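quick one
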Amino acid sequence: MKDIKEIIDIRHQLHSNPGISGSEEYAHNLIVKFLSQLHPDELCTNVGGYGVAAYWKSTVKETKTIAFRADIDALPSGHRCGHDGHTAIMLRFAEMASAAERPYNLLVFFQPEEETGKGAKKIVESGILDRFNVDAVFGLHNLPGYPEGTVVLNDGTFAAASCGVIYRFKGRTTHASTPEMGINPGRAIASVIERFDALNRKDTNPDQFRQSTLICCRIGEEAFGTSAGDGEVMFTLRAFSNYVMTELMKEADAIVTDVASQWNLELEKQMREPFSATENTSGYVRQLDQILSPCFDVVNITKPFRWSEDFAEYLKVRSGAFFGIGSGLQQVELHHPDYDFPDTIIDTAANVFSKIFNNVKL
Ligand SMILES: [Zn+2]
Ligand SMILES: [Zn+2]
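structure w/ zinc ion:
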């Protein structure tokens, strides 16, 4: 096996050449180069964009397949979510598993476009999970605020569902001296903002959590002789289960439809960056707890994270689990301009994947 320094060096190369969602060519090529040296039984390039997948048959007579996923994209501000670290972890794990006994067939895959919520859907649509008969999928995210190398499990939803919504209202402009002659959407939008506050449910049990956050609002334009004739308001909606998210979206739409008709406004709705809730398969989380607790520091949490993760798409079509790996108590939060993935947890996290692969019962 290679010195961990080589993997750390790859992490630094990725860090210095960040590819935002949809532009991960540098990472794609580097991953392909590394994996081809490990001689997988199959290597798939350009999967759902700049995704990569490598497949190794089991070394025993076993027909089941376990998949492990890493996300590889960066933010416009660089690798501030630690996906460079996730890539390095997966390469290390692939290196370990390719040289050892394999109780199952193994698929490791590298997913682009996580930050925009598009990548996982593209991977699912590419058909690789079907082609390699994947039975279960596992993945992780680094977590600042937890001690380095701590495994963070949640036997339930790990990360929230969220969706951006844009509501556009069309009324009619008129001379500013006679606003009563036109249809100005101002008070309708004010009423939507006011009524959306009642959609929030924060202090109940996690299952029921719902949140609407005002993102942007525009009414009319800078023209002082004209009463505004159109406007738009944008929110991000969030919930801890896909069921509650659907309910929240319906209630939000009902409020806006009601307000629009009350003020005689035309209404148009658009959705942006929809993420489902990352709902873990319960039995697997309990197994991970048993498998990992003797060897690693494991923390079980019950409150899901409020951010979203498109790993949710895999859990809608396969069993599996998503968990966290602590990246340090003194770390700034994810997406902070100073965030940098700690190299010290690469080996630990690769060993966590390895432990899961070798011990989980499907
Ligand atoms: Zn992120
Ligand atoms: Zn991330």
